[in-house]
């Protein structure tokens, strides 16, 4: 399996956690999104028509979108399961992942931040305030879902004693918020899960500082 990732990309990081939890070691290809490698014609045509990272290619099958990749991995390599089979828990995990992937991440993505600054000419301070505002709103919603999840399913992970795709989404999102200087103190449940994940090898291996690029 070939895996296309950028070390500092939170969506690539989600997939790296999933791969590590499943004990899979694909061929790693660093795609530098800062220099625009994700928009090169060959990459877009053969690897990821979305012109983003992450993506995987296996036996001529190419797939982008981090949640679709994790779902695909979960069916192909079901141990350990990252998307629970039980209907209600599965729905809760997906609810959380869509919050991270559809509501929080997109407004904070590199191309959005660049557009704000380079095209709309907002100042770096306004751009960072925009990031902090939507991140705080999103993480507050995440915190409410996590409190409910702890009550219903326990911990130490988002949705029980085992990590799920929700944890794959949460940890990179928290790091990205921290990196941008957001105030993380209100997010107590998320911080507790983060502290737990920080000592687990699969999560450590997936961190940006441990990637070849
Ligand atoms: N919904 C996509 C988002 C992918 C995405 O936007 N990835 C970012 C890196 S975290 C990227 O490639 N950004 C390039 C850009 O903004 O130009 C997914 O989950 O895979």
Molecular structure report:
There is one protein chain. With 213 residues, the protein is an alpha+beta fold. The protein folds into 2 domains: 2-80, 3-Layer(aba) Sandwich (Glutaredoxin); 87-203, Glutathione S-transferase Yfyf (Class Pi), Chain A, domain 2 (Up-down Bundle). The chain contains 9 helices and 4 strands; from the N terminus they run βαβαββααααααα. Strands 2-1-3-4 form a 4-stranded mixed sheet, with helices on one face. Helix 4 packs antiparallel against helix 6. The model has no long low-confidence stretch (mean pLDDT 96). The structure holds glutathione (GSH). Glutathione (GSH) binds at residues 9-11, 33, 38, 52-54, 65-67, 101, 109-111.
In summary, what is this structure?
This protein is α+β, with helices and mostly antiparallel strands and 213 residues long.
Essential attributes:
2 domains; 4 strands; alpha+beta; Glutathione S-transferase Yfyf (Class Pi), Chain A, domain 2; binds glutathione; 55% helix; four-stranded mixed beta sheet; 213 residues; Glutaredoxin
Topology:
Elements lengths: L1 E4 L4 H12 L5 E4 L10 H6 L8 E4 L2 E4 L1 H11 L10 H18 L5 H10 L4 H30 L11 H15 L8 H10 L3 H5 L8
Parallel strand pairs: 1-2
Antiparallel strand pairs: 1-3, 3-4
Helix pairs in contact: 1-3, 1-7, 4-6, 4-7, 7-8
The chain binds glutathione.
The site of glutathione has 15 residues, from helix 1, helix 3 and helix 5.
